Amino acid sequence: MHQDTRRIRSRYAAINLDDYEAKLIDALVDYTGMSRATLLRQLVLKEALETLGLSDLGISTVAHRAP
User: pTM to 2 decimals?
Assistant: First the structure.
């Protein structure tokens, strides 16, 4: 069981990508070995933190997980 039920991922968001963008995401998925959903979630959250000026909080990012 989850200690904090607000941490359960149940919200859904869709994005539309062109062929070039999709190939870039697929290449990142292949490179990192992460699932597409996890990769995209981390990219979105990383950008949100940077936009808010909070990127120094030590949140794990895609770059840290790459081999």
Answer: 0.72
